[in-house]
Amino acid sequence: MRGVIHWARAVSDDWSDIRGELTRAFDLSRDAAQAKESIVFVVRQEDLLGRRGPGNAMVATGLLSAARTAALEGASKGWTVNVVAHDEDADVALVETWAARMLESKSVTGELIRVGPGHLGKALP
Amino acid sequence: MNGSIVVTGAARGIGRAIAEKLASTGPFTVIGVDLAPELALSEHITAVQVDLTADDGPATVRETVERLAMPLLGLVNNAGITRDARLVNMTDEDFASVLEANLGAAYRLSMELAPLLHEGSAMVNIASRAYLGNFGQFNYSMSKGGLVGMTRALALSLAPQIRVNAIAPGLISSEMSMGIPDEIREKMVAAIPLDRMGTPEEIANTVWWLLTPLSSYITGEVVVVGGGRSLS
Description:
The complex is a heterodimer of chains A (125) and B (232). Chain A has 125 residues and is an alpha/beta fold. Helix content of chain A is 46%, strand content 18%. Chain A has four helices and four strands. Chain A has a four-stranded parallel sheet, with helices on both faces.
């Protein structure tokens, strides 16, 4: 398995903190793309809906959009980009298993996998 | 009610159409914010030239709002730039400048003005259909996706007094889209079920709808105005 699993860090609502976390994701994504390695971003499900404040929301939804865009670039090069979103009380080992599965898959890209039922009945991101 | 509405990126394209629409349908005074000096000026538009990415940019806009001494009825975060490149070639500057202009400036201005927004007012964030993914736009797509997250979070935190929504325009006839090579733009248009680019006025109409009580039960949503492109 070659690739990068990037867990989004919790951030404050201060812009410099948000910018720092998004820049960290850009740096590692560019490195991975240049090495033709796949990427999985791991975010919290409630952040996709903005439920833990604007800082965490901007990071989570920013990563999801970036993943969809990077996936277009990787599709013809053999590397993939996906997002795993998990509930607050999710089993970390289970999330890691799903992230590793996404790294191994060459046929699934630009996709959002949600671990746990927290997204049911909520908006599609 | 007479009041003011702040529109960023108001000198041209979609922002100019928004400012002119709001000024013509008012009873609003539009505070048009941009770096460029060619802001449309009328008795209903107050122009502010400010760099929103500068530390004191948002505070300068707030001071203008306070100086007008009118209720702040709306904020339209429209300003945006592109610096397209494949991810493998994207420079630190390409990334940072787009993130700062499209997301950082909108966020900092929203936080600066939110305490001034009148009860019943609304915020509209101009995202992009690129938040669903668009080749060669890692920076732009991330910034517009972030704007969608900001929209959802502020919709929750500012409810029930203030509504916050986003618009995701597709291919719109503007200076930004005219910078796309003709051959590529024609292919893009061919993929749009409505078979044409949208107009800045069509975005302005949607902004107006989201700012007024016509959309009074809508918050935290993204309205895609893209001629059906998301399906094709």
